[in-house]
Write a structure and sequence with these properties.
The protein has 315 residues and is of the alpha/beta class. It is built from 12 helices and 10 strands. The chain has an 8-stranded parallel barrel with strand order 1-2-3-4-5-6-7-8, surrounded by 5 helices. The radius of gyration is 21 Å and the shape is globular.
């Protein structure tokens, strides 16, 4: 897989609603997905496929990751979702989001079907990626094998509402601590499990939605928590959440500049001065410092940040 795409904010767009689709084109998100699953009523699922195909082919999504969430493989809609969307708009599609993934075989199924369609339609084989949504206890138990299931896999996505239901969590507020739990973060194990599996296999980890859409302060807290752990982005459900997500999952200007300076100082010391001991002002740097700086600098570049400080080898 090539360079990872920026997914600070991933907008969920009901695939059956042309008005919402049109509004989504004007929002400053890194990515979006046109939803054929939970946001579409059963009687509208078949007609929504054509709405999604038209939306992708009509364009207007420049600079964003273009995705479609199909129905899960236990339903009677999934295979036709994939065939219709990829045959109709595969050239304008970056990934498919597969919900309720419980084992590697789910990803294998989608990978095989995508390969068959790409070959039949004359599309580049392997270009369309897969995003696997972890939404229940079985998916979490099998998350390592899921993360390794296909070279197409680009992200693991946490699905909080279904996951909370699957473990009988005593809460109806998605993303908030359950009543009576006052010893830490009830979601920490789940989030870290998904994050570690993603990082072990070189893919991204994306946090799921926060459903209280008008409580932007609460959204910022939820996004800040997973950004601090190392997640790459979060699903957003409303325009009010977009800016907060973009800010939470990008480094500050100060941190970005510092990371770029670390990389410059390390490169200069090891290639020009040929020294193993590297100093940046009063800060001692080593290979671990370089690796940490690469992460922050990479996120800053993906977010479109520009440097405000330059490296001075004599300074």
């Amino acid at each position: 897989m090539g360079e990872l795409r920026s997914r600070r904010s991933v907008l969920a767009v009901p695939g059956s609603n042309p008005r919402f689709v049109e509004k989504a084109r004007g929002l400053d998100t890194d990515a979006f997905f046109l939803d054929l699953e939970d946001a579409v009523a059963p009687l509208e699922k078949e007609s929504a496929r054509e709405t999604v195909v038209k939306a992708l082919n009509d364009g207007g999504w420049e600079g964003r990751v273009r995705s479609v969430r199909v129905n899960d493989i236990s339903t009677g809609w999934a295979y036709r979702d994939v065939i219709t969307v990829v045959e109709g708009a595969g050239a304008h599609l970056d990934t498919l989001v597969l919900p309720k993934v419980t084992a590697a075989r789910d990803v294998h199924w989608l990978d095989t079907l995508l390969t068959q369609i790409e070959r039949a339609a004359g599309l580049p084989v392997g270009r369309i990626g897969i995003e696997a949504q972890i939404e229940d206890a079985k998916g979490l138990v099998n998350v390592d094998e899921i993360a390794a299931a296909s070279p197409r896999l680009e992200t693991l996505v946490y699905g909080p509402a279904d996951f909370m239901a699957s473990i009988n969590m005593k809460s109806l507020v998605v993303g908030e601590q359950p009543p009576g739990y006052d010893v830490g973060d009830a979601y920490h194990h789940v989030l870290m499990r998904i994050l570690v599996a993603a990082r072990a296999h070189g893919i991204q980890a994306i946090d799921g939605p926060y459903l209280q859409i008008r409580d932007v302060d609460a959204f910022r807290r939820a996004a800040g928590r997973t950004a601090a752990l190392g997640f790459d982005g979060k699903w957003v459900l409303h325009p009010l959440q977009v800016e907060a997500a973009n800010e939470a999952f990008a480094p500050s200007q100060e941190d970005y500049d510092h990371a770029e300076l670390i990389l410059d100082a390390y490169a200069h010391a090891t290639t020009v001065d040929r020294r193993g001991a590297v100093m940046l002002g009063e800060e001692m740097l080593d290979e671990a410092s370089r690796k940490m700086a690469l992460v922050v600098a990479g996120k800053g570049r993906a977010a479109g940040l520009s440097r405000t400080r330059s490296f001075d080898a004599e300074g």
